Each structure stands twice: as structure tokens, then as C-alpha cells.
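Holo prediction — NAP.
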Amino acid sequence: MSVVVTGATGQLGRLAVEALIARGRAPGAITAAGRNADRLAELGEAGVATARIDFDDPDTLEEAFRGADALLLVSGSEVGARELQHRNAIEAARKAGVNHIVYTSVVKAGETTLILAPEHALTEEMLAASGVPYTVLRNGWYSELFEAELQQAEQSGSFLGSAGKGEVAAASRADLAEAAAAVLADPAPHAGAVYELTGDRAWTNDEVAAELTELLGRPVEYRDLPAEEHAEALMDEGLDDGTVRFLVDLDRNKLDGELALVTGDLSRLLGRPATTLSETLRSLYRDGTAQ
Ligand SMILES: NC(=O)c1ccc[n+]([C@@H]2O[C@H](COP(=O)([O-])OP(=O)(O)OC[C@H]3O[C@@H](n4cnc5c(N)ncnc54)[C@H](OP(=O)(O)O)[C@@H]3O)[C@@H](O)[C@H]2O)c1
């Protein structure tokens, strides 16, 4: 049985390839697909097949997907372009005769105000209409994205935001990749399932600050600001208007609890507790200080 993984040149997809191999899948029965030629060459050195694909070029997709029993469709990274890109990928999978598509969506897609959700919700609708058996992995907020807060805390003893007491049930990329590999190992029982893959608990920024205080061994404070002041602070750091709006809107989503859902789906697929945010912060800190 062969599996194609898109986004394998990126962080989550690469971890999924590694998780498939760790579960005993022969590297030769995995195709790592992506655009970046250097990263594809690195993956090839691990013994997996590689394919250069571009979501904007349907021919590359159909060719790469032909003969695959299962496809892990890791959502693309170009926000705003993904509806068409994912449509291309699903259509190519259907034409190529792929037996099962596993798609990485976002938590609560379809029933959330999360600014990133609309393209994922549309993709889920396309999957349902495709006629190809599929499973949706609605991934929660990556724990690794708290590296930004860690870095601010290391530099200044505080980090800024406008998320108030909003909670985030973050999950590590490695866990999410391992869960994807668990589904890909035997996709049929998961056909039609929609999993909300969250951490086992949710964290407020005050709790993250307390964790960073312990990790760094000095006081770390979360400075909560009104949205306009948060935007001004980000502009003072030199961020462009689009990025500022994006980050402030995301904090609004956090404040509204759009990333707070805790379901246990992730730990159930893993067969163990999910990696905690504390553990991921510790790894990020170790990796950062080891350089
Ligand atoms: N849950 C969360 O917190 C969260 C946060 C951010 C993003 N995401 C979503 O999760 C996905 C995976 O996350 P990640 O951290 O692994 O992202 P990443 O490291 O940026 O990887 C993105 C992958 O998408 C591929 N890609 C982008 N545009 C493509 C195109 N036109 N054709 C073919 N491949 C294309 C990239 O290929 P190349 O590098 O070869 O171009 C790369 O392999 C992201 O793409 C995004 O949809 C989730």
C-alpha cells in the first residue's frame, strides 16, 4: 500500500513521513511531495520516493497521486489561494484513483469565526462532494507557534497580546503528524470521520507566562493590551499592515475561545496523552539555547 504526503517539504508533512516510517511503513511505499527541490532531495536520501508537485499545476498532482492508496493532503500555506489549490488536489486524487484522502483542516472549521477557517471549511465540503472516501483531521493551534512568546520573554521578560483570558488548546506538530500516520496506517475505519485534534488542556496567556517564568528562571509577564494598542505595538516592531491585522485578528479569535476546544481525539488516536505545551516549550528552549 502506498501513501503520498503533500507538504512533505514543510514541517508537518515531513514529520508525517517520519511517523509513517516509525510505524513500520517501508520508505519505498511513501511518496514525499512538495515544491522545494532541495528538501525533496533530502527526503529522497531517506529512501522515500519523491514527487515535485504544485497545487497550482493540476498535471503535477495527478501524476504524483497515481497508484496511491492513500493521500495525506496537508493544507497549503498560501492563505487566500487554497480554495482553488485544494480543489485541484482533490480533483487530481479522484482522477488518479486514490482510495482515501486524509486532509489536515483546522479546529471547528465550518462553525467558527477563526479567520483561517473559511478555506478549510470549503475544502471539507469539496471532500464530501468528491465521492472519494476521506477523513478530516481538524488540527488545533501548533504549540510550536508559542516560540514567538518564548523569544519575546527571553528578550524582555514579557510578551504582548490582546487575547485576554482566551484559552488555546495547542498541540505539537509531531503529535499531529503521528495521529495522521495512525489514520493512514488503516484508513478505512476512519472513513467519514472528522477529528478535532487538540491538546489535552487549554492555556491562557497568563498560564503560558507562568510556565515561561519557571522555564527561564525569571519573572515573565503577559501584557494584555486593547486590540488597537496591540496593533500599534506590532507596527512599532516594523510589521506590515497585513501581518499586524492578521495577528490582532487571531488574538481576537483566541479571546473569543475559537482555539480553546479540548476533545481528547488527539490522545485517543495516539493511544497516549498528547505532548503538553510545557514539554514543547522546553524543547524549543533547549533547541534555541543549544545553537
Ligand atoms: N494548526 C496550526 O497552528 C497551523 C499554523 C500554520 C499553518 N497551518 C497549516 O498547516 C499546514 C502545514 O503546516 P507546516 O507548519 O508544515 O507549514 P510549512 O512548514 O510552511 O509547510 C507548508 C507546505 O506546503 C507546501 N506548499 C505550499 N504551497 C504549495 C503549492 N502551491 N504547491 C505544493 N505545495 C505547496 C510547501 O511546499 P514547499 O515548501 O516545497 O514550497 C510546504 O511543504 C500549513 O500549510 C497550513 O495550511 C496550521
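READOUT: Residues 3-141+173-198+262-270 form a domain with the Rossmann fold fold (CATH 3.40.50.720).
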